[in-house]
Amino acid sequence: MTRTSLLRLIMLALMWGSSFLWIKIALDGLNPVQITLVRLALGAAFLLALCAASRLRLPSDRTVWAHMLLISLIGNALPFVLFSIGEQTIDSGLAGVLNATTPLWTALVALLVGQERRPGPLRAAGLALGFAGTVLILAPWQGAGGTLRGALACTIAAALYGVTLVYTARFLANRGVPPVVLATTQITMATAWMLLATPFFGLQPVHLDPLVVMSVTVLGLFGTGYAFVLLHRLIADNGPTSASTVTYLMPVIAVLLGAVALGESLGPRVLTGMVVVLAGVLLAQRKPRPAGAAAPVARPAVVGGE
What we know:
By secondary structure, the chain is an all-alpha fold. It is built from 11 helices and no strands. The chain has one domain (3-284).
């Protein structure tokens, strides 16, 4: 990986890893639906402007739009709202850690729908280890009320990301649509979903101050817009394996930013659970080695980000 690609990787990890901090700050003035609408609208505006500058057109295939109708709902609108709901009662660092379970859900869904073969012992152990780490983080035996509900909301959001990744790979991977165009279509459609939801769930009074405005602006333009550009450039230059390293950097950044900026402390149980989850992700994404082939390379799924 070149120095430029490494810089792009770090920038992507910072954008997605810091999203949980920006959500936490934005909640001081906006509710979850309002935050999601603004970030999606700003992200869509950025990506539409990028497509226009690059003379790229949105898809004309109605089938693509039909798939995007579902993908934008379960891959953006719902999980974005769920993470914001979760962060009303849990720390931003914990939300970032739970987001790291996305590759585990992706692998599980792929197995359930027959998109991948039955896992070997190593991958099966990785899945078991990863989900054990998730249970350790959630700690349902503690009966923490709102904290548990918030953590479950974030966990469901991560599971929806996993469903989206499998669905996208199955129905949109070979349609010849440039990735940036797919991302633009997805974010634009998700914005439309939130415009429909806002009259029912997003009309509460807002309390804007410079920090809240800055948070949703950064979240929209960078975490929801420019991050997709960096991701696709990394995949084009270095392949998905190198780009997927962001999976391991995001929760670390989320935890560090939460600790430094908000004084959050996750405690040894959650931090241990994070290490266990990431170890499980690493094992669960290993591919079986064909006879006579070289040692396998871990290929964790690229998280859609938050």
